[in-house]
Amino acid sequence: MLFALFVGAFFFPLVYYLALYFQVVQGDSAVQAGLKLLPYLISVVIASIASGALITAFGSYNPVILVSTAVLTAGMALIATFWVDTPLSKWFGYQVVAGLGTGVCFQAGIIVVQNVLPQQLIPQATACVQFFQSLGGAVFVAVAQTAFQNGIIDNVARGAPGVDARVLIDSGASQIRQVLADMGHEDAVGAVLRAYALGLRNTFCISAAAAACTFLVSWGFRWKRIGGAGEKR
């Protein structure tokens, strides 16, 4: 269940704050930000569908999960490098890498419980997997929100000391530039965007750390060949 907890811990904050990155830092509308999330989301779907075929081909879920969590961790670490001027090639490609790892992770918890537990316990275990994914998301979205706001407040104070960071936080993602203009701080746009990028980097680092935890936890899965050909701990 720790694995499921960390899956929720990296996924839900990532999707929320990645959309915020596109809206605030890159100046996109909500619709444009949603479209820019498609490389990640489509990769998740493709990897989720392909995970069954990969596990069948290997005859075991362990190698597939270990490789996928390693790819996921690398992708999340790359996303944590996003900056004000990150080009399309990077924000698109890094999302694909992270998405390919994510798709397998969403299936991994259910696949494991279906193969290691008695038949009568599978429904309860599946419900527990889904519960812990939701719990991880709920807890770590709140943690990421705190890290995000603290990052903005600290970095705005350093880069644009005349700007009230709390007004920016309360203004909404699409209103930052207009709020700065209304406050008479148009010249501080660059510093504020950098502060937002650093605040968002805090959230991406949290997702990357949670992804790394999925990799570590996956080493504790029981090694078992699909179809009962053999098993080892």
TrEMBL record:
<keyword id="KW-0472">Membrane</keyword>
<feature type="transmembrane region" description="Helical">
    <location>
        <begin position="91"/>
        <end position="113"/>
    </location>
</feature>
<keyword id="KW-1133">Transmembrane helix</keyword>
<dbReference type="InterPro" id="IPR011701">
    <property type="entry name" value="MFS"/>
</dbReference>
<feature type="transmembrane region" description="Helical">
    <location>
        <begin position="37"/>
        <end position="58"/>
    </location>
</feature>
<dbReference type="GO" id="GO:0005886">
    <property type="term" value="C:plasma membrane"/>
</dbReference>
<feature type="transmembrane region" description="Helical">
    <location>
        <begin position="64"/>
        <end position="84"/>
    </location>
</feature>
<protein>
    <submittedName>
        <fullName>Major facilitator superfamily transporter</fullName>
    </submittedName>
</protein>
<dbReference type="InterPro" id="IPR036259">
    <property type="entry name" value="MFS_trans_sf"/>
</dbReference>
<feature type="transmembrane region" description="Helical">
    <location>
        <begin position="6"/>
        <end position="25"/>
    </location>
</feature>
<dbReference type="GO" id="GO:0022857">
    <property type="term" value="F:transmembrane transporter activity"/>
</dbReference>
<dbReference type="Pfam" id="PF07690">
    <property type="entry name" value="MFS_1"/>
</dbReference>
<keyword id="KW-0812">Transmembrane</keyword>
